[in-house]
Amino acid sequence: MDLSFDQRLRIASHLLTALALFLMLYLHLLPALLAGLLVYALVNALAPPLQRHLPGARAHWLIVALLSAVVVGLLTLAIIAGVGFLRSELGNPSAVFERLMPLIDRARGQLPQIVVDHLPDSIDDFRAVAVEWAREHASQLQLAGKTAARVIVHLLIGMVLGAMVALYNARPNGRGGPLAEDLTSRCTNLVGSFHDIVFAQVKISALNTFFTAIFLLVVLPLFGVSLPLAKTLVVATFVAGLLPVVGNLISNTLIFIAGLSVSLGVAIAALVFLIVIHKLEYFLNARIVGTQIRARAWELLIAMLLMESAFGAAGLIAAPIYYAYLKRELTAAKLI
Description:
Helix content: over 70%
Number of helices: 13
Structural class: mainly alpha
Order of helices and strands: HHHHHHHHHHHHH
Largest sheet: none
């Protein structure tokens, strides 16, 4: 059966899009993709309200150009500030050791003797252990440093590309031929899917922060326990929760360490709470995201499981976006 031109065009655009999405994971370019989608989505969300006050194609293009520069600039400054903060903390090991020693001294009376025997007795011992560990794992640390640098570069390139695509689409007569038009439709669906997932992730982070705030600011004080930096931990939980998967690990670690600074019992209670809540949230998260993209929880869980098995953590992060995009395309084709 001969296919019409429109059918061949649609098949070609779908195949090219599928190949591009696969290569993003296979070549470890997911950070660039997410950064580009974020910039593009932000520019598209902020531009229309401003464009109402400045009619005309050139004015529209100028607004998009200014927004792109502002968004990319702010995100770049945030990345630079984060890297600078980490380097300042890691660049002064003595200060880190001095902060950890009171925690270790307090833990000596709470931990089993078999654990206490392996704890350093002073800052010098702590420094010696850290230096020895760094020497033994030098190759892994070097690889981790290179990976982090590559991810940052990919994020910056992705943001610039997202801004360039937004500028191209805002330019008068900026669209190309039939294939470019069809690929633009694919990209529009992908951006819409990304927007839905990000909106759902904000809901998830807010829910996680709500439960954490109840535990840290209500439950623990009822038992006479005042956790250090409790309010800061609540804010950190929300900010970290905006990062899929990794965010929960970061916030959980911070809460466990803060609990350990009070007592081993508080740390264990915090750990049990986090395990129970996050097991519950694992299904609630799938339901929240599923509602946003009109997918059942079990569908999303299967997609996350398959993507994680195929591509690791990157696949787990990309699974909701990819599956939301698939649902959009199938819905647009009236196949589901």
